[in-house]
Each structure stands twice: as C-alpha cells, then as structure tokens.
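Prompt: May I have another protein with tokenized structure?
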Amino acid sequence: MEMDVTDSQSIDNIFQQVRNRLGPVSVLVNNAGIIARGPAKDLSEDEWRRVLETDLTGVFLCSKAAFSHMSNLGGGSIINVGSIAGFVGLAGRLAYTTAKAGLSGFTRTLALEWAKDGIRVNTVAPGWTRTEMVVKGLQAGLLDENVLVERIPQKRLADPSEIASAVRFFASPESSYVTGQTLIVDGGFTINGH
C-alpha cells in the first residue's frame, strides 16, 4: 500500500484499508520525511513548502486520521520520528530543521489534548543513522562520515534497528505512563559541546 502523507484523501483511504484488513489503528509511527539541501538563500519556496508539507503537515494529517481509531479503542500510541536537527543547527537544511523542531511542540500539545482519550504522543529523535537519506548524502559528498563520527561520543553512526527499538518502546505497554516526550537517540551527539 502506498500513501501520500500530504493528501488527506490518500491518508483516509489507507486508514480505511487498514481498518478493513486488520481492525482499528492502535499505533501510528509518523516516519515519512524528505530533505532539501543547500544554503537558505538558495532554498526555493517550492522546496520549503514540499519539505514542511511532508515532514510536518503529514504528521498532523496522519495523526488526525488515527484519532478516531484510537479514541474508539480507548487509547493508542502515536510516535513521531524527529531528528537531532530539531535541537541543533544544521547548515544547509533550513526547511528540514524547521520541520523537525516543530515536531517537539506538536508532540507536547497533542499529548496534552489527547491524553483524556488515552492516546499517548511521543517523538524519537535519531542522530546520524545509516538510513537511505544519510547514505545518499555520504555518496554525494554532502556528508563526511569521518567528520560525523568524530562528533559522536560513541564514534559510530546508529544502525536503523537501534532507532526502531526506541520506537518499539513507545509503542509498547512499557511506556504506558510516558507521553509528550522526545527521546534523543544519537550516541551522545547533542551533548558533545564542540
């Protein structure tokens, strides 16, 4: 199944298909994301809008679609996949960092509003992870793995499975009393002062 997270009708269609096949949605992971690289002065309005529509508006639309499923079940868990880009400046990624920073406020506000419906909302903010997006940046010479690893106290990029473990925690009953939080999973990158 494919879905366009910027299109409410596409989202509604997929949620209906999921309900028909598996029942109501009890866990939603908002993980769609794109990036536009380059200096802010060269960022086009179209690129800005495309990144924010996917990385932030898509989270809103999918979460809103999940609400009726989860509230009818008496609760659920929404996990947003953010980024360390929401906590540190990353030159050449203005739209992406803006969208990811916005997820923190989105997460706290939605968690506050939907707690009465039994819906928990949290964010996992990965650091440098060997994802397709990062690998493409490395291959294009836009990122330098040695430079990145030097800044990470654990001296390596994360494996995607390590991020998945944090997401799994928020989806599980083990996090039943946790909502409105952002868990940074970055090998110590954001605490490193240089």
In short: Strands lie at 27-30, 76-81, 119-126, 182-185. The chain has a mean pLDDT of 95. The CA atoms of residues 161 and 193 lie 27 Å apart.
